[in-house]
Write a structure and sequence with these properties.
mainly alpha, Four Helix Bundle (Hemerythrin (Met), subunit A), 0% strand
């Protein structure tokens, strides 16, 4: 692998990390709003929570695209994201319309699982960046 390809792959990996960081922030915010919602928050807290979830889902789709790009550039690295955070419109409607502890808990568990997935993937992509930096230093 030549230096230019390594540099390009490193840029894609860094962009992926940036997107993961943003998704993580949205998920943490959604988790916090979810806690508030479970403790008696009203419809507004549910709406804010689902807005954060929606932003995180969008960012995770962008992460998936970046991972495909990274895999094409590297070829031998096999890292995939299967975001567990897929709150359907129906589930969001139920959570907001009925606004009860069961629907709140269900969405909260999805948020927590997705946050764990994002953190796991951040570690994987950081390892890839470290490996690329080593390759970059060793390549003349």
């Amino acid at each position: 692998m030549n230096r230019q390809k390594i540099t390009e792959a490193k840029k894609v990996a860094q962009r992926t990390l940036d997107l993961l960081d943003q998704a993580g922030r949205e998920l943490k915010s959604a988790r916090n709003w979810g806690i508030y919602d479970m403790l008696g928050g009203k419809m507004l807290s549910s709406l804010i929570k689902h807005s954060k979830v929606s932003k995180a889902e969008s960012l995770l789709r962008a992460v998936q695209d970046n991972l495909h790009q990274l895999q094409k550039k590297l070829g031998d690295v096999n890292v995939e994201l299967d975001p567990a955070l897929r709150v359907s419109e129906f589930e969001a409607f139920i959570d907001i319309a009925f606004d009860n502890i069961i629907s709140d808990w269900f969405v909260q568990s999805k948020i927590k699982g997705s946050l764990r997935d994002v953190e796991r993937l951040q570690m994987e992509v950081r390892r890839i960046v470290t490996r690329l930096e080593r390759l970059e230093r060793d390549t003349v």
